[in-house]
Design a protein that fits this description.
Blueprint lengths: L35 E4 L19 E3 L8 H11 L4 H24 L5 E5 L10 H24 L5 E7 L4 H19 L1 H6 L2 E5 L5 H10 L3 E4 L8 H22 L5 E4 L1 H5 L1 H7 L3 E4 L1 H30 L1
Parallel strand pairs: 1-8, 2-3, 3-4, 4-5, 5-6, 6-7, 7-8
Helix pairs in contact: 1-2, 2-3, 3-4, 4-6, 6-7
Length: 315
């Protein structure tokens, strides 16, 4: 292990490095042609090598699900409640190898061709910052080591990272510095400089903070899964309202920002998210077919409306 890295504050503009999920993030009517329906979570599927192409956008991987694997869950529980320093280090080392195996499995799969992976964050570690940083350090080293191994074998894949729920631009900047320091130590400066780092934003985040985070983030994901349990229709309606406010704040600061939505409420609020100019949504396998059909209908209606408007203007 490389040990726990210091998370330093400092704001650095990344506007010169736009996230190329498509031909460009657009504002106004043009965004609707680029609205993306993307995968959330790994799926067991077979794709022939000849058919594997870089997808239009990443697959969202919530790394907290890795901690649910039986062996990792057991190690994590032991590490969480152990205070003896030598033992915690040994447990963390064993967790690192398990996390590396999870990362390797992801990058070898079709969903690993382009993945956006969340940096680990668990509620029980929210108030234990040093423990959380040590776990995140292990995860990042595992991810970047697995990526380096994949590249050495000639694999072509892209790995983006998501900082979980920063409360301010300064907090996001510190997390960004942390991620880049691990990337540089593991993969070298060239990769660290090119690494795309976004932020997961909770629906109840401060609008001003979301705008300032967008200024220095490569992309944002408005996370409907962070809102807690609620009836499906109410959750979708509340998420759509919160997303509209957050997106408006972001566009005021960075009009071309790439902003996705995720979580079950996002798929249910698809029409509203499409209307307000979201870049797309991540959805699970269970929601994907319905979401694709609804998105196709919305795109067709928008094109018809645009055609009718253009025709009316010529009369």
């Amino acid at each position: 292990m490389k040990g726990e890295r210091q998370q330093q504050n400092g704001l650095r503009s990344r506007e010169e490095r736009p996230l190329m999920y498509n031909d460009g993030a657009n504002t106004g009517q043009e965004h609707k042609a680029a609205f993306l329906i993307l995968r959330e979570g790994r799926e067991e599927r077979t794709v022939l090598p000849a058919d594997r192409r870089l997808p239009a956008g990443p697959c969202l991987i919530r790394s907290e699900t890795w901690l649910l694997a039986p062996k990792l869950a057991e190690l994590y529980a032991s590490w969480l409640f152990t205070e003896e320093e030598p033992l915690t280090e040994r447990l963390l080392q064993r967790m690192y190898y398990r996390l590396r195996a999870e990362a390797s499995a992801l990058l070898e799969s079709p969903d690993g061709d382009w993945a956006a992976v969340t940096v680990l964050f668990t509620p029980e570690l929210a108030a234990r910052r040093s423990r959380l940083a040590a776990l995140q350090d292990a995860q990042l080293e595992a991810l970047f080591t697995a990526l380096a191994e994949r590249q050495r074998r000639g694999g072509d894949c892209r790995l983006d990272l998501l900082a979980p729920y920063p409360a301010s631009a300064a907090e996001f900047a510190a997390m960004r510095e942390f991620i880049e320091s691990v990337a540089e130590q593991t993969l070298g400066h060239a990769y660290a400089a090119a690494c795309r780092i976004g932020a997961l934003i909770a629906p109840d985040a401060q609008q001003a903070a979301a705008g300032e985070i967008a200024r220095i983030a490569d992309f944002l994901v408005l996370d409907g899964a962070a809102g807690g349990a609620a009836p499906e229709s109410a959750a979708a309606e509340g998420f759509a309202r919160a997303a509209a406010l957050a997106l408006a704040a972001v566009r005021r600061v960075k009009p071309a920002a790439v902003v996705f939505a995720a979580g079950p409420p996002a798929a249910k609020a698809l029409a509203d998210l499409y209307r307000i100019g979201c870049s797309g949504v991540f959805c699970s396998a269970a929601q994907r077919t319905e979401t694709l059909l609804r998105a196709a209908c919305l795109t067709w209606e928008a094109r018809q409306e645009s055609t009718d408007t253009a025709a009316g203007g010529r009369l």
